[in-house]
Design goal:
By secondary structure, the protein is an alpha+beta fold. The protein has two domains: about 70 residues; about 210 residues, Fumarylacetoacetase-like, C-terminal domain (Fumarylacetoacetate hydrolase, domain 2), CATH 3.90.850. Helices cover about 15% and strands about 30% of the residues. The protein is built from eight helices and 18 strands. Strands 1, 2, 3, 4, 5, 6, 7, 8, 10, 11, 13 and 16 form a twelve-stranded mixed β-sheet that branches. Strands 15-14-17-18 form a four-stranded antiparallel β-sheet, with no helix packed on it. Strands 9-12 form a two-stranded antiparallel sheet. The protein is globular. The structure holds magnesium ion (MG). The site of magnesium ion has 7 residues, from loops.
């Protein structure tokens, strides 16, 4: 199933996407239930409850404004740094090169604040030259947790995956490099476009799909998720060590090679650029930078 959060007639709704992707059918929900988008469906399914009733009439996708499936994540978005071999290689000349053996044994994990999430076609706000002149894209598969847990073992990890969505882990490189922690350079307002919907794990296997990114129509990133350094079960095991994961938690799994910083010379995002991120079996997001 594909669950979308959208605005229709000025009201946030959550619905199911038709097989052809052209229609949406809203669930009958209260405003309190739709406040956090598809979170209410995740909670219901994890609790073993039936899904809410569907409205009698469907809406054409073209008549609604899609939002991020989880427009207000319950807490920070978990993110993984440097998780594809070719991407790690392209950053060897930068400050983000491996500096110790631990960096190879454990994934880099940081977070983005929940307020930076925007929808799949929303504009992303460039912060202005006084704040950062090195804005970069990172196309990523995001895992959405279903059943929560702590100290989840790799062997059990996939049972905790509710589904997948697409994110662009937009990054201010100069700010990322300035601070020992990455959260600031990753969390500017609107720096986490997400969508177009949440696809349940029975429809796509995040371990075997493909992440692509275009900048103004030019293909820049194209990587199979089999090329992750730390696979999805390893990431879930690592992040849940001593920390309880909850239904609706989001893990952005890292980006393939081809980011602007990795090009020679680097090519950062300029005003008016349109970045499209697509993942096979999940969908695509496309955002203009303004
Ligand atoms: Mg990233």
């Amino acid at each position: 199933m594909r669950f979308a959060t959208f605005v229709h007639n000025g009201k946030r709704q959550v619905g199911q996407v038709s097989a052809d992707g052209q229609q949406l059918t809203a669930f009958v929900l209260t405003d309190a239930q739709t406040r956090h988008g598809a979170q209410c469906l995740i909670d219901a399914m994890v609790a073993g409850q039936p899904l809410p009733a569907l409205a009698k009439e469907s809406l054409p996708l073209s008549s609604v404004q899609l939002e991020a499936p989880l427009p207000i994540p319950r807490r920070n978005v978990w993110c993984v740094g440097r998780n594809y071999h070719a991407h790690a290689k392209e950053l060897q000349a930068s400050v983000f090169k491996d500096s110790n053996t631990d960096a190879k044994a454990w994934p880099i994990v940081f977070t983005k604040v929940p307020e930076c999430v925007v929808g799949p076609t929303d504009d992303v706000q460039l912060p202005g030259a006084t704040v950062s002149e090195q804005i970069d894209y990172e196309a990523e598969l995001a895992v959405v947790i279903g059943q929560g847990g702590k100290n989840i073992r790799q062997a059990d990890a996939m049972q905790h995956v509710f589904g997948y969505t697409v994110v662009n882990d937009v990054t201010a490189r100069d700010v990322q490099m300035r601070h020992q922690q990455w959260d600031m350079g990753k969390s500017f307002d609107s720096f986490c476009p997400m969508g177009p919907w949440l696809v349940t794990a029975d429809e796509v296997d995040g371990r075997k799909t493909r992440v692509r990114c275009w900048v103004n129509g030019e293909l820049r990133q194209d990587g199979p998720t089999e090329n992750m350094i730390f696979d999805i079960p390893t990431l879930i095991e690592t992040i849940s060590r001593g920390i309880t994961l909850y239904p609706g938690d989001i893990i952005a799994t890292g980006t393939p090679a081809g980011v602007g910083m990795g090009l020679n010379p680097p090519r950062y995002i300029a005003k008016g650029d349109v970045i499209r991120v697509e993942i096979d079996g999940v969908g695509h997001i496309e955002n203009r930078f303004v």
